[in-house]
Design a protein that fits this description.
The protein is an alpha/beta fold. It has helices at residues 3-17, 20-43, 46-49, 56-63, 70-83, 108-121, 126-137, 139-145, 149-154, 162-170, 173-189, 204-215, 232-245, 287-297, 321-324, 328-332, 349-358, 370-374, and strands at 87-92, 95-100, 193-197, 222-229, 251-255, 272-278, 298-309, 363-367, 382-388. The mean pLDDT is 95.
Length: 389
């Protein structure tokens, strides 16, 4: 992989992407997540449930939550244990146990302060907190009362919440950064031909890629863009938004289940020059098999480019998981593997490198250089996985 391009990308991220406002907003977001989790911990009476060491599955049953909700509660407890310290963690016989050490104080003032500070930053940063608020409000509904509720929201089936999900994926600067970074990598690497986007959702990927190629006078390289998703609502909605802005770009709009064989869904081997995804790859059931499908779809010399939130600590709950893990699919779909997928959703950079290696790629790198970025932004969470056949 071109080391010079990666170094330039790293510098661009440091100078232009993760600005002081972005870094400050990330810190505020993390405090708001902790405050929400404290409030949930209190309202669910978890201090009493954890008067003695217990596992997340037992607490899930005591609360009457859907069985797979133990994934959510384990993430909640691990994050509070690590960041706030009032939950004690014990590993015993391959099982993670928790015990309340000290009942936390009400965190409503802390949450309000986070909202005030985010408003002061201006722009659309407050959107990140709106999404957290939504998850906290729908927590019990999603895990107990209506277990399929969040799955319907995240696939566009409940129109009342379609704007919430659109804003969370396209307006929130802390999330849109994934599309911006991925588009920059594509612009730097894409030699021309056909781009296949997997899990295109509400359009963060295609919108940023076409815009970046246009702004850099490289749109002529693109012969065809194939946009795919499992949700027809998202396919039609994104098509409606994109086609008027880019009427001369040849596009195809197709249904694709990333957990199935691509060829069985009319995506034939050796037909794409670049396979792209924004926060889509981590929800595949079989990570390595999915990457193998992407590899088979590429022409010789083609690229896979995945723009992903990466897990900085192996099991720490990421901010958006306060909402995403309310989806039963997000909680249950991924098949874990201690070698490359120790957690259920986001992967670490090392996990991604190993998964691509197992899928047959020998030329893989992470953009930007995460160690170099850590010097200025220790909580940097966005990366682009770049692989070439």
């Amino acid at each position: 992989m071109n080391a010079q391009l990666r170094d330039q990308f790293t510098q661009w991220c440091r100078d232009s992407v993760f600005t002081p406002d972005m870094i400050q907003a990330t810190l505020i977001l993390n405090r708001a997540v902790d405050a929400h989790l404290i409030q949930l911990y209190r309202s669910l009476g978890m201090a009493d449930l954890l008067s003695e060491f217990s596992n997340a599955a037992t607490v899930t049953a005591q609360l009457g939550f859907e069985t797979s909700s133990d994934v959510v509660l384990e993430g909640l407890l691990l994050r509070l244990a690590d960041r706030r310290g009032f939950v004690e963690v014990q590993e015993s016989g391959g099982e993670t146990l928790f015990r309340n050490k000290q009942t936390p104080e009400d965190a409503s003032a802390e949450l309000q302060k986070a909202h005030d500070e985010m408003h002061e930053l201006g722009g659309e940063f407050i959107t990140a907190l709106e999404f957290l608020d939504f998850g906290a409000e729908q927590f019990v509904r999603s895990l107990k009362d209506e277990p399929d509720f969040m799955d319907q929201v995240l696939t566009g089936k409940i129109k009342d919440y379609s704007e919430t999900w659109f804003r969370a994926t396209n307006v929130d600067p802390l999330q849109d950064v994934h599309g911006i970074m991925g588009a920059k990598a594509v612009n730097d690497l894409f030699p021309g031909g056909t781009i296949l986007e997997v899990g295109g959702g509400t359009g963060n990927g295609i919108r940023n890629i076409l815009g970046c190629l246009r702004d850099n006078d490289n749109l002529g390289r693109l012969e065809k863009f194939i946009f795919t998703d499992i949700s027809m609502q998202f396919i039609m909605g994104t098509r409606h938004k994109i086609r008027p802005e880019f009427p001369d770009v040849k596009t195809e709009w197709r249904h694709l289940d990333i957990n199935g064989l691509f060829a069985d869904q009319k995506i034939q081997p050796g037909t794409a020059d670049l396979v792209y995804g924004v926060n889509a790859a981590h929800i595949a059931k079989h990570t390595v098999k999915f990457i193998e499908q992407c590899k088979q779809t590429l022409k010789p010399g083609g690229y896979v480019v995945f723009s992903e939130r990466v897990r900085m600590k192996d099991r720490e709950m990421a901010p958006r998981e306060i909402v995403l893990n309310l989806s039963k699919y997000h909680r249950t779909a991924a098949i874990r593997d201690p070698e490359f997928r120790p957690a259920h959703a986001y992967l670490s950079t090392d996990n991604w490198l190993r998964a691509f290696e197992l899928a047959g790629f020998s030329n893989v790198s992470i953009w930007p250089d995460m160690d170099a970025m850590a010097e200025s932004f220790p909580d940097q969470y966005a990366a682009v996985i770049v692989a070439q056949v």
